[in-house]
Predict the 3D structure of the following.
Amino acid sequence: MNILEAIILGIVEGVTEFLPVSSTGHLILTSHALGVPQDEFTKSFEIIIQLGAILAVIVIYAKSLLLKSNVWMKILTAFAPTAVVGLCLYSVIKDVLFASTDLILGTLFVGGFFLVVFDRLHKESATAIDEVANIPYHTAFVIGLFQSLAIVPGISRAAATIIGGLIFGIKRKTIVEFSFLLAIPTIFAATGLDIIKTAPSFSVHQCFMLAAGFTTSFAVALLSIKFLLKYIQNNNFTLFGIYRMILPVSWVIWHQFVAK
């Protein structure tokens, strides 16, 4: 991996982390497109640079939400299922799921189709929960169960949590904000676990690549978060669903007919 590739991957992470399109799936596909081998460092890089995007959430929400203890308790309640699943299946996630491009393409397409259908059928209730602090603990836990599905790259952590929240009566803007906040312990835990297992093997060059990807993802995520919050005020997620279906189809066509 060189500096340009690290920056490109940082941009991809910053743009996609909070959109319902699967940042991990996009990072893996982008690595393939750039010719970056999916070795142990690249897999760790794709996990660790997500911290840059999470730092953007902390910067934006530090005063308004993160200092509220009841909000934190609900975030941790939602995080619990993913913590258990991620800890138990760490090796499977990194060594098996991250290695399957076909799986990522399939989950991107199916998830996109589901997102389009869901948007067609879902009607927001006038009594839907409109504040993160008002989300019940049992609902937060169920949203965490939805998030745990995103251990499979391509499903999208953001899409899973947003759909789960909408199903259980939370307003669109509120569940998007909750999804942002839920990413904090989720990504910190995933990154911390990976660093413990792999950091001693990183070279100076690899640490420099991580710093470049981290910094880029942070800067781009600041813009991505603001874009999504503005976008959802007047739009649903159908366009993201359509994009998710177009991407894998385009990928297959390119590799089957053009790249040859």
In short: The first helix runs from residue 3 to 16. Residues 3-258 form one domain. The chain has one domain: 3-258.
